[in-house]
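Suppose a colleague, Dr. K., hands you the sequence of a protein chain of 139 amino acids and asks what its three-dimensional shape might be. Before reaching for any lab equipment, you can write down a predicted structure in token form. Begin with the sequence itself:
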Amino acid sequence: FQSPGYVVIQGEMGDPRMIPTDGRPLPKDNLPQWNGTSVGRWEGDTFVIETTGFDPQVAWRDSTANLHVTERIKRIAAGTLEYSFTVTDPDTWAEPWGGVYPLTKMDALLFEYACTEGNYGMANILAGQRVKEKEAPAK
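The predicted structure, expressed as tokens, is then:
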């Protein structure tokens, strides 16, 4: 969604991305963030997002502190956005690389991402422990 000065993108997983659109430049010496720091701007009918300042611990695909991601989102049909991205890090790759794919509107509910294997795992772990307790000799 879009509000004055911000665009917020919520994907299936993870925290929402709050992207300022007030014309500020990318910070030069920003505090590194796990997902970087983004700023957005409109170039005609294309929303452009620039992201830098990734935490060095992320080291995505052996990237360095110079990792720079540019994303472009453009409506190409009534129910379709074109999403493209370019990844640049001259210390890691000889040249920028990226990709393009469509984002299509779905007429369905968007459910929160919830990791549930722990819910089943706990029952199995406890069941196994109860068996071990029953088989253990009485002390």
